[in-house]
Specification:
By secondary structure, the chain is of the alpha+beta class. It has a single domain, classed as Double Stranded RNA Binding Domain, CATH 3.30.160. The protein has a four-stranded mixed sheet with strand order 1-2-3-4, covered by helices on one side. Strand 3 and strand 4 form a beta hairpin. Helix 1 packs parallel to helix 2. The termini are far apart.
């Protein structure tokens, strides 16, 4: 799983922050690395001139093998909170996506059954209404 970190020009300490983000992404998504080819992280300070508020933004996108990408966004008061929250959101979203895929693959198809709507033994067969 490759992790790519991008920041806007308003974010300070990019190298140290990139190492932190990579560690957080690995912690949150490491158990899913067989299914994820790449994670892109975009960090930005949307209102760098002002203080306070949830102006730090983290967008994370996971590229899943053979599946469409999964993307989440999280806003917070600090970059650390923004990427921590986004990592948790992305983990849940990828787990949910992969869980749906697993559930779908585990189901049996009715295509091989001769008459999937045949009544059970002992049930009466009635003709459909409508005069046809």
């Amino acid at each position: 799983m490759k992790i790519q970190v991008n920041t806007d020009d308003k974010v300070e300490g990019r190298e140290k922050l990139s190492r932190r983000v990579e560690a957080e992404v690995s912690r949150a998504l490491g158990h899913l690395s067989d299914h994820i080819t790449r994670v892109e992280v975009h960090l930005s300070d949307e209102d760098s001139d002002k203080t306070g508020g949830d102006d730090k933004r983290c967008l994370m996108e996971a590229r899943l093998a053979g599946r469409p990408p999964v993307a989440v966004t999280n806003h917070a008061g600090s970059l650390r909170e923004a990427f921590g929250g986004a990592a948790d959101k992305l983990r849940r979203s990828v787990e949910r996506t992969l869980g749906r895929l697993k559930d779908h693959q585990g189901r049996k198809s009715i295509r091989g059954i001769e008459n999937p709507v045949a009544p059970r033994s002992g049930e009466a067969v009635t003709a459909p209404r409508g005069g046809r």
